[in-house]
Specification:
By secondary structure, the chain is α/β, with parallel strands linked by helices. It contains nine helices and eight strands. It has an eight-stranded parallel β-sheet with strand order 7-6-5-4-3-2-1-8. It binds pyridoxal-5'-phosphate.
C-alpha cells in the first residue's frame, strides 16, 4: 500500500524528532546547556502544500534558501501567519533584501556589512507601515580553511559565510542598526570534514561573540547528516531538509 505524502512527512518528522531527543539526552560538550533546539525544517525545492502539511504536524519554523521561491511560498501561506516562522538560510544579494525582510522571521546567512545595511533599511521602512519586530540575524561563518582570513571577505565560493576574523566587526555593525537583532552564529560543516571539529570551532567563536554581546548566544548548525554533532556542541537551531522531506527534486 502506498503511503500518502502526509504519512511520509509525519513518519520522517517523527524520526528526526526522535534523533534530536536522543542527541539532547546524550552526553554533550562541556558547558553546553541547550535544552531543546529549535527544528527548522528546510522546505526549499518542495511545494507550499508540503509546508502546509508540516504546519498541521506541528512545525512552526521553516527554512528557505532561494528568494523567489520563498517569497512565493510565504505569499501562498499567509493564512498560517503568525504561527509560522520563515528562516532565510541561503546566500542573499543586497537587491533581494527588501523582499526577504517582508516575510522572514530571521536571516541565518548574514555575511557582510552591505547586506546588513540593506536588510536594516527594509525593516526600518516597514516599521513605518506596520507593527513588526526587528529582523533576527545570524552571522554566517565559513569554517572552511580555504576561506581567506581577512575581515569582511564575504561571499566566497564554498558553502557561504564570512571568515571568522570578520565576526566581531560585523557584529558591531549589526548592533548599531535598529532594524536588526543579533541572535548569534550560523555555519555549515565543510564537506568531507569531521562535523564535531567544525562545530567545536563554531562553539568557540560563539563564546568569543558572547563575551562582547551576551544576548547573541544562538547557534544555527546541523543538517540531516550531522545534527547529532551540532546538538553536542550546543546548537540552538537545526536546519534539517532531506531527512524530513526526502530527496530534493533535481532542479537548478
Ligand atoms: C539545504 C540546506 C540545509 C538542509 O540540508 P539537508 O542536508 O537537506 O538537511 C541546511 N542548511 C543550509 C544552509 C541549506 O542550504
Amino acid at each position: 500500500m502506498t503511503r500518502t505524502r502526509e504519512q511520509v512527512l509525519a513518519a520522517n518528522l517523527d524520526a528526526v524528532r526522535a534523533r534530536i531527543a536522543a542527541a539532547t539526552a546524550a552526553p554533550r560538550a562541556p558547558g553546553v546547556t541547550v535544552q531543546k533546539p529549535t527544528l527548522v525544517v528546510v522546505t526549499k525545492f518542495h511545494p507550499a502544500q508540503d509546508v502546509r502539511t508540516l504546519h498541521a504536524l506541528g512545525v512552526r519554523d521553516v527554512g528557505e534558501n532561494r528568494c523567489q521561491e520563498a517569497a512565493a511560498k510565504s505569499a501562498e501561506l499567509t493564512d498560517l501567519d503568525p504561527a509560522l516562522n520563515w528562516h532565510f538560510i541561503g546566500q542573499l544579494q543586497t537587491n533581494k533584501a527588501k523582499s526577504v525582510a517582508a516575510y522572514a522571521h530571521a536571516v541565518h546567512s548574514l555575511d557582510r556589512p552591505a547586506l546588513a545595511a540593506a536588510l536594516n533599511r527594509a525593516v526600518v521602512a516597514d516599521f513605518e507601515l506596520r507593527d513588526r519586530e526587528p529582523l533576527g540575524v545570524f552571522l554566517q561563518i565559513s569554517l572552511d580553511d580555504a576561506t581567506p582570513l581577512t575581515a569582511g571577505a564575504g561571499g566566497h565560493a564554498g558553502r557561504g559565510g564570512m571568515a571568522p576574523a570578520g565576526m566581531l566587526e560585523l557584529a558591531e555593525c549589526v548592533e548599531a542598526l535598529p532594524g536588526l537583532r543579533l541572535r548569534g552564529l550560523m555555519a555549515v560543516a565543510p564537506r568531507g570534514a569531521d562535523p564535531d571539529a567544525a562545530f567545536e570551532r563554531l562553539a568557540e567563536l560563539s563564546a568569543i561573540l558572547q563575551d562582547s554581546y551576551p544576548h547573541a548566544g544562538q547557534i544555527s548548525a546541523g543538517m540531516s547528516g550531522d545534527l547529532e554533532a551540532a546538538v553536542r556542541w550546543g546548537a540552538t537551531h537545526l536546519r534539517v531538509g532531506s531527512d524530513v522531506l526526502g530527496p530534493r527534486p533535481a532542479v537548478g
